[in-house]
Structures are given as C-alpha cells and as structure tokens.
Design goal:
The structure is a homodimer of 487-residue chains. Chain A has 487 residues and is α/β, with parallel strands linked by helices. The first copy, chain A, has helices spanning 19-32, 45-52, 56-69, 85-90, 108-111, 140-155, 168-182, 196-208, 224-232, 275-288, 311-314, 343-357, 362-373, 376-400, 428-438, 467-482, and strands spanning 3-4, 7-8, 72-75, 78-82, 191-194, 215-220, 236-243, 246-247, 256-261, 291-295, 320-325, 337-340, 407-409, 417-422, 443-444, 457-461. In chain A, helix 7 (168-182) packs across helix 13 (362-373). At the A-B interface, helix 1, helix 4, helix 5, helix 6 and helix 7 of A face helix 1, helix 4, helix 5, helix 6 and helix 7 of B.
Chain lengths: 487, 487
C-alpha cells in the first residue's frame, strides 16, 4: 500500500467491486486507526479523482458517506477535514479501567484476578532467574531447516481442522521420547498435546474438579500458576508441606481427591520425592479413589545417580496423569506440552481440550515432531545436561564455600535451579536486601508459598548464566554478607 | 540412533555419565515402547559388551536391573528374554475405557462429554463442507519466507515467557487490520491474541459467566462449539430464534446477561443482522447491563452492497467484545484469533488467558504479524473474495435455477457458505437422503440446532470447491430430486 496524497490507499483494479465503497472504507479505516489525523484536510474531490484515476462522482459519494457517518466534517468553501474520532473512542470506556470486585458482569472468580501475569522484571541477560533455558546453545539452524521442510510438506496439504488431541506424528514422537527419557510407559494413544504445561493443568483442573467441592492438594511452597489453574476451576486447595523427602504424604487429608506434585524436582525447593513417599502416595490415591498429577517440568535434566522411577511408571491402576513440557528442554515460547493420561479419562480430556481451543497450532507441532523423531531433542538434552551440570557445580561450590556461613543448600538431583535455606532466619531480611544486587533473578522461596513459610530460603536458576559468572556473583554476594556476621 | 543387534541403542561417548545406567534406560525404553518385542532374546552379555565396545560388567549390571524390575526374564542356560510388558500396560486401565456418567472422579460437567470432536468424515477433497478455506490459493511461498525471517530474528533473541495478551507487533497489526477491514475502532492495547476464536469464546465464557447463574443467549440454530464453551462455563443457555433479519432481539428474556451473536453472517443460516436489530441489541444490552459477544468469523468476505457496521463500531458504551479469527481468512491450523475487548474488562481477561495457557506460541505470532504488516493479508483476502464470489454465484445460479422447485436460498452477503430452506418439509427426508451423494459435505441446518428446527434447510460451503464443480454437482442433485416431484 503506497501513500496517495497524505493518506495510504490501495484501490482495487478497475471493474473489481464498488470503487466508491472501497474508497469510503479505506478512508474510514485510516481515520479510525489514526493514519489520518483529526483536523487534517482531505484533498478536494476533483484533485483526489485525478490522482487516483477515478471518476469525481466516486470520490464525492465516498466523502458524502464519511460526512454522514461523522468521520469527516465539511467546511463551507474549504476542504473537508477529518473529525476527532479519538474523542469518540474515549467514550467507549465510561466504566473504570479495571472491572473491580463489585462488577456483577464478571464471574466473581475473576473480579479480583488472583493470577496476575508476572510483571517483566528488569533483569540482565545473564542472571539467576528460574525456569528459562539458554538460547545460546539451541540448534536454531536445525529448527529452521525442519520448519522449512514442514512448511513445504504442509503447502501440499489441504487445509483442515486437525485433531484436538494433537497430530499423530507428534503424539508418536512424544510417546517414544518419554519412554526413552523418563521410562514412562505409554503409546501414542495415551498422549494429548497441550499448549504448554499450563494448559495441561488447566484442562485437568476443569476435568477433575467439581467446583466448590473437590479438594486438591498442592505443594507448599509450590508453583503458583498450577495453584491458580485449580483455584480457577473452583477447587478447595489444601497446601501440603514439603520436606527433604518432598511432599509430606502423611499429611494428606482423607478427603483430598486430586494431588498435584513435582516428584523429580520439587518446585521451588528442588528436592526429589523419595521412593518411600512415591509408594505411599500411590497407595493413598488407590485407597481414596484419588488422582495424582505428576508435573515433570524439568526432569530431563538429571545429574545424580540412578533416577527414581516416575510415578506414572510405578502406577498400575490408572491413577496418574503425567504432565510434560518442552519449555525447559527446548524453549518456553514454543508453547508445547503434553499429558500422558490413563485410558479411562482420555475421551473426556480430549473433549475439554476441544472446548478450550479446538487444537494446538499444527505447523509447530510438525516441526517439533520432526525434531524429536530425528533425535535432536535427545541430543540437545544430553548436550545441555553437561552445560547445566557445570553451572550447577559452580553454584554448589559457592553455596558450600563462601556462602556456607549463611546458606544451607537443599539437596537436589535434577532441573534448572537449586535452592538453599537461610541458616539464621533473623538475617533473612538483610540477606534478601542484598540479593537482587549481587544475584539478580534469584527469588525468595516465600514467593512460591500461599502461607508464610517456616524457613526462609532462596532459589537460584542456572538456565541463563555461565559457570564463571555464577562463581563471581556468589563470591561478591558472600563478601556483601560478611558484614552481617554469621550464625 | 542406529540399530545394534536387534535393538536401537545410542550410548554416550566414553567417560560421559554412567554407561550401565544409560544402557539400562535405553533397553527399558525400547521394551516399553515395543521396539524390543516381548519374548525376543537379549544378546549374551559378552557378545553385547564386545559389540558396544564396553566392559562386560557394565552390561551385566544393566541386565540385572532390568531383571530386578521385571522387564527382562532370565532363563537357566539360555539368553534372557524380554518380558511381556504389554500385559503390564493393560493393567493400567482396569476402569472402563470411558469414564462414564457415574465416575465421581470427574467434574459432572464432563462425565458425559457434550462436545465431541467432530469425527473426520470421509469427504472428497473438493466438497461443500463448511468453514474451510482453499489451500490452493494461499501464498505459501510468502509465508515460508516470512517464517524463515522470523526464525532468524528469533535465533538472536534470548528465550523468555512472552506476554499473555500477545506480542506487541501482532496486536498492532491486528488493530490496524480490523480498523481497515471491518471499521472496528481499536488500538493495539484493546487486542488480546487467542488460540483461535474457540479460545476467545472459552475465555469470555469463563470471565463473564457465573456458573449456574448467568443466562447466555445463543442463536438457534447456532455454532455448536460456541454453545459448548458457554455450557462448560456453567451458563444457563437461552436459545434465540433467527429470522431473515438475524437474531430475534425482541425475544431476548430480560434476565439475559450475555448475548453471543454472528451479525455479519449468521452461522449457519448466513443472514446478516439488520441495522434495526443491531441498534435494538445494543439498546437492550445498555438497559439490562448485558454484554454482547460479536462473532465475526468470516466477515472479511463480503459480496453485497455497503456492509453494515460492526456492532463494535456502533457501540459507544463498552458493551461489545469483538471476536475475530484467521481460520477462514488464512487457514484453520494457524490457530490464531483475537478479542477486541472494552477497557474495563481487559485486565481480567488477560488473567484468564494467563491461567488458561500462559500465552500463545510466539513464532507463529511473529510470522502472522509480518504477514499482516506487509499487506499480504489484505491482498490475500481481496484475491480470495473474487474467487469465492464466483463460486457463490455458481451456487446461487443452481439454487435459483435447477434446484428452485425444492430449495429457497436464504439471502446472505458474506462468508464462505450459503444456506437454503427446503420448500416442502415433507420432502426433507428424501432430499437429505440424496444430499451426501451429490453434494458431499453440505449439512442440514438442524445439525446446528439445540432443539428441532421449524424449517428444514441445508448449508453449502464453497471454501474448497470450484465454481464449475458446484454447477455440475447442483445439476446432478436437482436431477436426482426430479423423481420426488416438487411443491
């Protein structure tokens, strides 16, 4: 679209459609979106007609319509000018900007939104923030090549509404991947592709929670967006303590019907659910007719000895829904996750997905399927595991070395972050006051808690910071704490 | 991964990680996903060690673990064999395959899923199915080029969780597009990107419906997935009749608080909501503190005289949520739609989106933003409008010519389908019996209705069928009806 006069117009070829109508609409759009500013003069009709190569009558009738609609103001003996549409636009929002708790037009659930999108913090590129993997080591060239291939194949395929549960190639690839990487026993039919892990939790919450009735156990501290998904579905939340063996299964109230847990790498403390607790949790679920949601958000990155079996692998009774994501193993904006669901619930779950958004976008699904199928995911995870391991060791050195007087690392064997308790709770405020300056992006464990946490602690992400930078930052942090003394 | 012996293995380089553990996991995965079939013999440990170039002890300890776990069965004096894991897998589903209405583990809403993903019909590539645009005229080369560009830019950007409301470039592009194409008055801030129109309805239903309380008016007949989204949110549905002026506004019950409507091109009858009704609808909403959801799913394709203003354009009081989609103007598997929301509800709406799936995938968002920004969407819509117009005329000729004794076309000025009433309801069963053979993909209007519809009718899509094919099909259909006689 090239500018004609002061305004951008692209009239159709002669003989195609109604020119007056087209001109009217394009002018109106330009006025509405501000390309034609209020008060600016339109060219005279004769002048416009000549420049556009159309009949003057055509321009006259387009102008007349605009005047009738109030978009253009005629002036006696002078060129017509653009009306002040912004004033009209402002009248659209007579209500206060946020609906507010008293606005009965909204579902009470959302009148005071309990989950606010995280405000983007001003963090340096290299920092200790949680849950973001490193883009510098991603095989962008491979992804680009597979994208081009997928797009070429797709250009030969007729358009359609693809299956809600995901395209067959991706479900197949995911089934093989989780069998391989996590010993999760499943076939393609068990897999439902979701728009990230968050959609998985949201769909499961809607499926499994009877509003106002179902009691759902969540880890405390735990990942807030998962809690929000259950709360939004009307669950009665039961926050469960977490200790060095993970979720305290003994504390589960008898009437809990859904238990959401991060067994590989508790979010945020990083502990693994012990084998004893895993068995106890499955026993509990079996006896109470309850369901377990296994959130394995970064379990691909394991550094310790032989990993514990996934709950899904141990389950023989269709009690476990396994939720995985590619946000940590690949990248978050891919927005692809999945549920491995027991057979009895699959049809209903696909219905929820169908109702929520029909299906996930398929071009990205195809690229991801090819990426997994050709072994790139496995290779990338193996390569990143070595890189993250080095960072993890640097972090551990700092925590056990210079920071040892103040911090006590919490044992963990997997994932992209590690946590530590503050030894002397009385020093916590002073330590947190120095945190962002020296260890930007690190978070207080309390940010993950619904209630006040007993022991203050800090989580350190190592997804986007190099080992050397970790060493330097932790040494400086320790130096800044030296003035506090230690316990 | 290349096959070694009978099974696929890719062991890491020497010195990286624990080889026994790696071997154990890879074998277990191969057993779980069926690459190693039940009953097949594992190679002897000595043989395996030699072939893989690793110590025999490594193989022995991997085999021992598999035996302890029951994945492999040792045999006295013979090679160990793979256990029958399928039998174990089957034990996972002791419950019936579908949960069934009595399964208290599910939210009652989903025990009998009311929205089933449409079973893929066996339809020829060229057919009269509704709502699918034509892939043959899509500028795949441009899309591919913009994808490659977006991926190159993205490869230089650090990974992050993008904004829930959509990336800025796309919101900006959409705002300009709807101002231009539909005279919808909005700026980028008013736009929320969704995963298709279905997610827009789902988010709005969750935001605006207080479960068990809010009464929602839907068109009858109307688009079933929209109805399902409101029902799933716990709405009390009020099906409203549709006549030649569209939704019968006079029939709206006083206690309706949300009205979902397709004013440009009613789904499925195709009629446009008259200007009189538009004003009456906005008056109703203003007086009752109700909200209007304007579903403009294929309003870009307009063929008639001057189009009626969108409800959003007429609204001065923040009553209208405008829902658009690229499923018809571009392609359905893109899975991108949007809401133009009044300012008072925007924050809450973004919270619902954040809870539902955090955000939509960003690579596709970038490509779409570039596609709109560079004018390709406007050009594509203009090109397709001419193509669809020809098909529409062929359809109209058939309905007014050979099919006139049996069918009466319903006037419509927009979209990708047209509908006709059956003149003599008594002939309807015989006509439907002949429909799929001659006009495959055409649907009974009754498929869109909650209740029995008064006048039987047929919808004809022309998104994926050429004008010539339409002419031939309709002539043959008419010939097959000739034996029925006419009214």
């Amino acid at each position: 679209m090239e500018p004609v006069f002061q305004f951008p117009l692209a009239l159709p070829e002669r003989g195609q459609g109604n020119l007056a109508q087209e001109l009217h609409q394009q002018l109106r759009s330009a006025i509405l979106d501000g390309r034609l500013a209020a008060g600016s003069a339109l060219p005279a009709t004769r002048q416009a007609a000549a420049a556009l190569g159309i009949a003057r009558n055509t321009v006259v009738s387009a102008y007349d319509l605009l005047i009738a609609e109030g978009y253009v103001v005629p002036r006696q003996g002078a060129k017509a000018v653009v009306a002040d549409v912004a004033a009209r636009r402002d009248r659209r929002g007579p209500k206060p900007l946020s609906a507010g708790p008293e606005d009965t037009r909204l579902n009470p659930m959302w009148r005071t939104p309990f989950l606010r999108p995280e405000a983007p913090r001003q963090l340096p590129e290299r920092c200790f923030r949680l849950g973001i993997p490193d883009h510098r080591h991603f095989p962008h060239d491979i992804w680009r090549r597979l994208s081009a291939q997928s797009l070429r194949t797709w250009s030969k395929t007729r358009f359609s509404y693809p299956p809600s549960e995901g395209i067959a190639e991706l479900r197949e690839a995911i089934a093989q991947h989780v069998a391989f990487a996590r010993a999760v026993a499943c076939v393609a039919d068990d897999v439902i592709v979701t728009s990230g892990a968050q959609q998985a939790f949201d769909l499961l919450a809607r499926l499994l929670v009877t509003p106002g009735q179902t009691r759902v156990a969540v880890e405390e501290p735990g990942y807030p967006p998962v809690r929000a998904a259950f709360a939004a579905a009307g669950a009665r939340l039961a926050p469960m303590p977490v200790d060095e063996e993970g979720l305290c299964v003994d504390a589960l109230p008898d009437d809990v019907r859904v238990i959401s847990v991060t067994p590989s790498h508790q979010s945020p403390t990083g502990v693994a659910l012990s084998m004893r607790r895993r068995r106890a949790l499955l026993d509990f679920a079996r006896q109470r007719n309850a369901i377990v949601i296994e959130d394995d958000y970064d379990g691909e990155f394991r550094f310790g000895g032989r990993p514990l079996d996934a709950l899904q692998t141990l389950d023989r009774d269709g009690l476990v829904f396994y939720v995985g994501t590619f946000s940590k193993s690949l990248f978050p904006s891919l927005r692809k996750g999945f549920i491995v669901a027991p057979a009895w619930a699959r049809d209903a779950l696909i219905s929820v997905k169908h109702c929520a958004d029909s299906h996930s976008d398929t071009i990205t699904q195809s690229v991801l399927a090819a990426f997994i199928r050709d072994g790139h995911l496995a290779r990338h995870v193996r390569r990143m595991r070595a890189i993250y391991q080095e960072r993890r060791e640097a972090l551990m050195e700092g925590l056990r070395g210079p920071l040892a007087p103040w911090l006590q690392p919490i044992p963990c064997e997997a994932g992209l972050h590690m946590a530590a308790h503050i030894r002397d709770p009385e020093l916590a405020p002073a330590i947190f006051a120095r945190l962002q300056r020296h260890v930007p992006g690190a978070q207080s464990i309390a940010e993950y808690a619904m209630t006040t946490s007993e022991r203050p602690g800090i989580t350190f992400g190592y997804g986007v910071i190099d080992a050397d930078e970790i060493r330097i930052a932790l040494r400086r942090f320790a130096a800044s704490l030296a003035e506090l003394g230690a316990r």
